[in-house]
Amino acid sequence: MFTGGLIGFEDAIASLQRLQATGVQLDCIQTPSAQRVLDQRLIASVGMRDVTKNLVTDHDMLILPTLTANIAAKVAHGIADCLASNVTAEFIMSNRAIVASKSPVCPDSSGKKQWYPNIPAGYADLLRGNLATLASFGVRLAEARALCRTAIAAFEARDRLQRGPLVAALGTSAAGLSAAADKPAVLPAAAASAPAGNVVVCHDRLLSQRLVQQLPEGTELHVAANTVITALAQDTAAARSIRILREG
């Protein structure tokens, strides 16, 4: 969701392009101020799908690539009187993942310092305090250029939470399960020597549980050497006898 923060806008667009390239489906909505002040051609270059309905229920994560001081202040103080503050508040209250660029708001960001080199100390503390409150709500704050890796880290964190019931069922520790998940999914020797089944090549840079669940059991899945494989995707592959092979 784009609001009208200009600082770090181009870095945010580059981050979203990298995230989209991993295979993550990005939907987009803009506030009226974003439509007025942001370069619409750059936003269109990401290739996102415009949406206007079911903004919370149909989405796993909210990304705020151009967070404004106005929206940060509203949400930090429980005010939800516009599109951006209302949607953000609903994500927070639903305990859904939120990633936001702090570049337009944080007085310590390089862009903010360049635009406003003489911010009074009291006002700078106010801005920092609002960001700290957002962080206490679970919002992941990052510089605009780091939105991609921050979003992927948030996906990984969600996967770890979803693996909780599996930890209990297996009677092992979360650390032990994580160590097992770090290993490639390998078929037993007997199965490996059996006639080859389906072979699927995945070109996405992020392999998620959702994709693995769509494959038939026993599939041999080829991914690129630099593909990010979520822990839950590895667990699902192992459970479904899906062998993941890195190419290159």
UniProtKB/TrEMBL annotation:
Organism this protein belongs to: bioreactor metagenome
Signal sequence interval, chain numbering: none
Domain Flavoprotein: 12-99
Name recorded for this polypeptide: Flavoprotein domain-containing protein
GO molecular function: catalytic activity
Taxonomy of the source species: unclassified sequences, metagenomes, ecological metagenomes
SUPFAM superfamilies in alphabetical order: Homo-oligomeric flavin-containing Cys decarboxylases, HFCD (SSF52507)
